[in-house]
UniProtKB/TrEMBL annotation, chain A:
Lineage, top ranks: Bacteria, Pseudomonadati, Pseudomonadota, Betaproteobacteria, Rhodocyclales
CDD domains: STAS_anti-anti-sigma_factors
Organism whose genome encodes this protein: Azonexus hydrophilus
Similarity section: Belongs to the anti-sigma-factor antagonist family.
NCBIfam families reported in the protein's UniProt record: ant_ant_sig
One example GO MF annotation: anti-sigma factor antagonist activity
InterPro entries: Anti-sigma_ant, STAS_dom, STAS_dom_sf
Domain STAS: 18-113
Protein name: Anti-sigma factor antagonist
């Protein structure tokens, strides 16, 4: 998979897990946006694994912001897990690394109140 | 100043991966570090997104051209298009504490480069956006 994204999801106990891999650019972000919003249910918990994201631009960041705001309106928990360096770089650039909840691993996320 | 890279791309989101790959190779070939190249490629990607979305409004047959020029220790990327005329007002970033999706592209372009500006477009083009970054 040179270009594009691969999205996998699973439900495990009290939380939904969404894994995003590849390049989240303007071409892929509509797919990522839909997956994030579809996965968000009221009063739920969504953990988004970004460990395999090789590239993210501002359209990908916009997807995460929209999901974050939707979760907040729904009273849901929304957290980013194992954020890969290219994603962390753009989140810092947008000063969002202190806005989103970030966990180093799934175990840490679950210990944080899954 | 002769371009060391000069190529036309379809103004389609599907072309962005190829834009990034081609520009990455050209910047590395000019001696730019991996980190600086990554920053410049992301900045140019944002500029191309603006051309596709705001300039051409996703017109199916539109194209843009990228040129890479080296001036001593500086690389300049020229983004040339025939979209609606753009100006300095289009290069004003929004406030970051306004938490909402979108509108971060200009902020990224400014933060990741050493300068962006609209220059007089050469014959045959409507806009010339220059994005500059020091090689080292």
């Amino acid at each position: 998979m040179r270009d594009g994204v691969e999205i996998t999801s699973r439900k495990s106990g009290d939380f939904d897990w969404l894994g995003i891999a590849g390049e989240v650019d303007m071409h892929a972000s509509p797919q990522v946006r839909k997956a994030l919003l579809d996965a968000l249910q009221p009063k739920s918990a969504l953990l988004v694994d970004l460990s395999a994201v090789r590239y993210m631009d501002s359209s990908g960041v916009a997807c995460l912001v929209e999901a974050f705001q939707t979760a907040r309106k729904q009273g849901s928990r929304f957290a980013l897990v194992a954020v890969a360096q290219p994603v962390l770089n753009v989140l810092r650039l947008a000063r969002l690394d202190k806005v989103f909840t970030l966990y180093a691993s799934l175990d840490e996320a679950l210990a944080g109140g899954g | 100043m002769m371009p060391i890279f000069d190529r036309e791309f379809p103004a389609q989101t599907a072309a962005l991966a190829e834009v990034r790959a081609a520009l990455d190779a050209a910047c590395r070939g000019a001696g730019m570090s991996e980190r600086a190249t990554g920053d410049l490629v992301l900045a140019v990607n944002e500029a191309c997104m603006n051309v596709i979305q705001h300039g051409y409004a996703y017109a199916p047959d539109a194209v843009f051209r990228l040129r890479l020029l080296q001036d001593g220790g500086m690389l300049h990327v020229h983004v040339l298009d025939n979209a609606r005329p753009a100006g300095l007002d289009d290069l004003c970033p929004r406030a970051l504490d306004d938490l909402r999706p979108g509108g971060l592209g200009v902020h990224f372009m400014r933060q990741l480069s050493d300068g962006i500006d609209y220059l007089p477009a050469p014959a045959g083009y409507g806009n010339l956006l220059q994005i500059s970054k020091r090689i080292a």
